[in-house]
Known about the structure:
By secondary structure, the protein is of the alpha+beta class. It has a domain at about 30-130 and about 170-240. It has helices at about 5-20, 30-50, 55-70, 105-110, 115-130, 130-150, 160-165, 175-190, 195-210, 225-240; strands spanning about 50-55, 80-85, 90-95, 100-105. A 4-stranded mixed beta sheet has the order 1-2-4-3, sandwiched between helices. Helix 5 (about 115-130) crosses helix 9 (about 195-210) and helix 6 crosses helix 7 (about 160-165). The structure holds zinc ion. Zinc ion binds next to helix 5 and helix 8. Zinc ion (ZN) binds near residues 123, 176, 179 and 218.
Amino acid sequence: MSVVRLMVLSLLLAAAGVLMSGCGGETFLISKNEEINIGQQAAADFEREHRIERNTQRSRLVDQIGARIAAAAQPPSYPYKFSVVAEDVNNAFALPGGPVYIYAGLMDELRNDPDQIAWVLGHEATHISHQHAIKRIESAMGAQLLIEIALGGGSSGDIAGIVASLALQNYSRDNEYESDRVGARYSAGAGYDPTAGLLVLQKFRELQGRDPSDLEIMFHSHPGNTDRENSLRQYLNANRLYGQHYRGG
Ligand SMILES: [Zn+2]
């Protein structure tokens, strides 16, 4: 690569960095319809490999709670769909544009408590409503596009490859804090006890202490790390969201 091209490339990447971190709002490379399509394709792939519970007591409970969480979620609105994965795994996750999955193992761990499940679904719905995954995908696409421009064309961008490699990466800690807090807001808006989120985070801290290999996508704080609990407690206090597991103070 020539020195001039290298300079152009680094300038473009710097500009892209400013653009993509500077505008926290709308995405500009991927339309909302494309975002929903990306998520639906990933959901179809996932559901080919995993069994989804339908018409069980558990899946009906998740349908009910999910519908209320979806109604409480702030715009931009998405076609949310909440499903139970019939596997003994302590996890839940969201795909761009609407699909949310909670594993049967996590529901058992939470003893099918609607308040705790509502907070988990609220947390996942926030990853969607706040476009956490799609913004990361867009940044990667943007960087790749700019590299291609700087290199004078060449290979076309493999969006599917980027989506695949990013879909299963962990969110940033900031994304997690935001989902913990906004999830509590959605949960309260849907008529559930938002302080149940504290109980879920505590339980997971204990779980991780027992078996660190149980580290899944939704929860990846270090054992003994109470930062997320403190951050959520602060938010609940600031917004006067009190309940059974936190009464303020
Ligand atoms: Zn999360």
